[in-house]
Backbone:
């Protein structure tokens, strides 16, 4: 069962009500029943053991320092005898592949491993019902996929009921039996995933579309009568999407021959010329052409050739005999561009940003900033920035540090507040506002320094689709004012849509870089879902918009 | 690398080090102390910790030698006056006593180095948990916070520098203020997260009933045999100590050392106690060393592992 909806829609509150120990304080009416008994009447052991919960932040749930300690913790709480603990631990460690990690200190584990550990630790009590509150929002895509696969296995093989709330639905939705949409504390929709797609198809402007997997969204975009399409034909995964596209391709080709035999000469003519001259089609994907897959970034002026920041053969390691995180890395950044740096976990992406901002000094090589150019850095964890009791104070202190005179500071602050929609939160404590708002606040603080270069570390992590779009719009606005942005991200879709240049960091160096279209279409796996789906037909299309633009042309060609 | 004495049950190691500490405190006799130092040093070298020992040596020697030098300057007891230093009599007995103190100090230092290597916090906590499970849990959770806070503080320092908070620059006052700001950030963040940790603990049934303890250590036959051996060989010197053996009287006049059968028996038993772990460690070495020569069907076994072990010996 998948719960979805925008941030602040009441997903977490609902999940917490299902777990008795964590039920929020407040007025409660109505009743929650577990196996026919009211939840409040369950004995404590049953409530703790049979209903397990995994939270959003992998770090905050961890109690102990080593893996085996952490795993044993929940069983120790239940007072199991050592023999039982031993056999259960063995079982779960085997199932999750945790054996090699058993004696490792937990802080050495990656985020994905930590979250798996949290899940394993809950499963040791053999729950019948698992509640997960955005468990993958802090993970990179590979780890997230692995986590969800594990959940799927638990659900299939052990028939554990799983209730999960999620923003990243590409993987989860196809596996779900039931989808619940929560908005403003109300249940807006309940049904199977395909039902949900059809429902979204009936309301063309609904924001719910953003929650659908890409295959379904493409389906809705290209199929005008999607609302009434037969249930089985609605694609949810890449494979289904591909099959559907090919079937569509066949129909289009059939129509085309019909038209040709019908004697419409001009139609045949245009399609021939398009198909005949390969350049005719390629021209559409030329980054300079209006049909360039650079998507929404089109409105932004093209980057100039003014060099803002250059890294020349930068080599960096953290300790004297540590591994070299960056190896002779060279990179240049021009005015007004949005450079997306991608790479696996631990590839050194964050380190690179630190080095670029001058927070870390490379052992070899140089980082040169253009004359009078300043850079601002937004770390992955916005909490690192806050040291005052209200949002207002934070911004004021920052403006003071930036050296803005009183009046200008106030103007600047109110302008940023408006852009970031933070006006209502001026007097709240920075720790009390939501994760997305915290990030915006931190960004606003960095913006007060009016940097020419903005370095962002994973800005899309844990944001719901709507928030992502707003962030992109903001970045576009900044770019049009000549600010260059470097963002480090795992979010392929985001990079493909909004970046003007993409680079791959691997083994301490930049292995490949280029405009998104070329960059992604040359990748086989590390590319957008749309590209994976349509690459046989439209090798350079990266986003749904690209496909929509080129599809009619393509359909008439074939 | 956990082998030999380190791989024994924590209680064995605990008994061993407790015994050694007791002997170091009770048996005020150069022979016993020297044996203890030699035994522990050799054990550390066998465990491949020789380099670490060497690194700390200057500090320990400085401490120990300064005790040896200071004692005759402050204590003027004893019958044999060697010479006068700034009108203060320096006696032979005081010098000898200082040297003995030096030996005791060195013994304790080396004892703790060896202890730290063998009895890790994990093992200590395991032993402690049997006595006080709740306290142990609390201690473990607290201990996790120390390195965690260090890592976080490093991050915070790095980031806060962007907004001009830097505890490494400026006047003392601004530095202190900035330092406090950094700590405040750390505390706010960590307390916020502690709420979630508490939720997680509660969700996993903390406090529902009496906790049991999961142990990763098993007391096997060898461990039991060792415990027995330590108890027997430890009681004998203690018994003799109570009878007045094994202590060298220095003040007011040093008594001549003489070795009777009782002293010999006491020393022999003491040696058994001190040197048993060495034997274990040596056996381990020998096992692996000999396996290099014996022909294993698999070529991989012969390769890196054994060479690595033996290279430590040289």
Residues:
């Amino acid at each position: 069962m998948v719960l979805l909806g925008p941030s602040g829609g009441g997903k977490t509150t609902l999940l917490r009500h299902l777990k008795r120990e964590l039920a929020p304080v407040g007025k409660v009416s109505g009743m929650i029943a577990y196996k026919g008994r009211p939840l409040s009447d369950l004995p404590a052991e049953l409530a703790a053991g049979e209903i397990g919960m995994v939270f959003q932040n992998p770090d905050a749930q961890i109690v102990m320092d080593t893996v085996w300690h952490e795993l044993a913790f929940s069983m120790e709480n239940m007072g199991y005898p050592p023999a039982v603990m031993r056999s259960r631990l063995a079982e779960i460690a085997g199932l999750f592949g945790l054996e090699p990690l058993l004696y490792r200190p937990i802080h050495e584990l990656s985020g994905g491993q930590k979250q798996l550990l949290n899940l394993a630790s809950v499963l040791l009590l053999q729950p019948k019902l698992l509640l997960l509150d955005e468990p993958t929002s802090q993970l990179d895509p590979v780890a997230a996929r692995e986590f969800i696969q594990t959940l799927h296995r638990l659900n299939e093989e052990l028939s554990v009921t799983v209730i999960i709330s999620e923003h990243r639905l590409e993987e989860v939705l196809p596996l779900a039996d039931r989808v619940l949409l929560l908005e403003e504390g109300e249940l807006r929709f309940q049904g199977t995933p395909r039902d949900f797609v059809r429902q979204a198809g009936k309301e063309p402007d609904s924001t719910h579309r953003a929650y659908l997997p890409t295959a379904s969204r493409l389906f809705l975009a290209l199929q005008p009568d999607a609302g009434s399409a037969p249930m089985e034909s609605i694609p949810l995964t890449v494979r289904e999407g591909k099959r559907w596209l090919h079937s569509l391709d066949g129909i289009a080709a059939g129509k085309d021959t019909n038209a040709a035999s019908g004697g419409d000469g001009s139609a045949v003519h245009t399609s021939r010329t398009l198909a005949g001259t390969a350049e005719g089609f390629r021209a559409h994907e030329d980054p300079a052409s209006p049909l360039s897959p650079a998507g929404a970034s089109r409105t932004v002026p093209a980057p100039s050739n003014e060099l803002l920041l250059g890294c020349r053969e930068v080599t960096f390691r953290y300790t004297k005999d540590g591994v070299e995180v960056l190896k002779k890395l060279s990179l240049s950044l021009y005015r007004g561009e949005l450079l997306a740096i991608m790479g696996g976990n631990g590839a050194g992406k964050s380190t690179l940003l630190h080095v670029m901002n001058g927070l870390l000094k490379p052992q070899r090589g140089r980082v040169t900033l253009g004359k009078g150019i300043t850079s601002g850095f937004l770390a992955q964890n916005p909490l690192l920035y806050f040291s005052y009791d209200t949002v207002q104070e934070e911004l004021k202190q920052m403006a003071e540090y930036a050296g803005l005179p009183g009046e200008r500071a106030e103007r600047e602050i109110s302008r940023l507040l408006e852009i970031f929609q933070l006006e209502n939160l001026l007097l709240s404590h920075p720790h009390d506002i939501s994760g997305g708002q915290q990030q915006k606040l931190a960004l606003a603080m960095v913006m007060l320094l009016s940097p020419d270069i903005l370095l962002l570390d994973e800005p899309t992590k844990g944001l719901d689709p709507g928030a992502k779009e707003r962030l992109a719009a903001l970045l576009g606005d900044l770019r049009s004012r000549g600010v260059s942005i470097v963002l480090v991200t795992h979010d392929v879709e985001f990079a493909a849509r909004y970046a003007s240049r993409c680079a791959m960091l691997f083994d301490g160096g930049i292995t490949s870089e280029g405009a998104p279209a070329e960059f992604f279409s040359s990748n086989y796996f590390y590319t957008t879902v749309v590209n994976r789906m349509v690459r046989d037909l439209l090798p350079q299309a990266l986003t749904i918009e690209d496909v929509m633009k080129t599809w009619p042309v393509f359909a008439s060609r074939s | 690398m956990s082998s030999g004495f380190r791989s024994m049950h924590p209680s064995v190691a605990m008994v061993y080090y407790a015994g050694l500490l007791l002997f170091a405190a009770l048996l005020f006799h150069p022979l016993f102390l020297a044996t203890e130092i030699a035994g522990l040093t050799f054990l550390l070298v066998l465990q491949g910790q020789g380099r670490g020992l060497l690194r700390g040596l200057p500090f320990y020697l400085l401490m120990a030698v300064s005790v040896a030098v200071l004692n005759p300057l402050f204590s003027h007891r004893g019958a044999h006056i060697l010479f006068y230093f700034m009108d203060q009599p320096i006696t032979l007995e005081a010098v000898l006593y200082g040297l003995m103190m030096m030996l005791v100090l060195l013994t304790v230092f080396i004892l703790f180095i060896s202890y730290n290597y063998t009895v890790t916090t994990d093992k200590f906590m395991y032993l402690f948990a049997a006595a006080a499970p709740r306290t142990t849990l609390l201690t473990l959770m607290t201990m996790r916070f120390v390195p965690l806070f260090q890592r976080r503080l490093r991050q915070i320092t790095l980031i806060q520098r962007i907004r001009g908070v830097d505890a490494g620059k400026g006047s003392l006052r601004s530095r202190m203020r900035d330092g406090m700001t950094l700590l405040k950030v750390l505390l706010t963040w960590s307390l916020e997260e502690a709420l979630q940790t508490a939720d997680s603990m509660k969700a996993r049934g903390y406090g529902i009933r009496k906790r049991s303890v999961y142990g990763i250590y098993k007391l096997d036959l060898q461990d039991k045999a060792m415990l027995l051996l330590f108890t027997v060989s430890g009681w004998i010197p203690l018994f003799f100590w109570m009878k007045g053996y094994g202590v060298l009287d220095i003040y007011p006049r040093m008594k001549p050392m003489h070795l009777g059968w009782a002293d010999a028996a006491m020393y022999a038993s003491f040696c058994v106690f001190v040197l048993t772990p060495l034997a274990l460690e040596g056996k381990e070495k020998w096992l692996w060393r000999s396996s290099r020569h014996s022909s294993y069907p698999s070529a991989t076994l012969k390769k890196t592992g054994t060479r690595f072990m033996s290279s430590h010996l040289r």
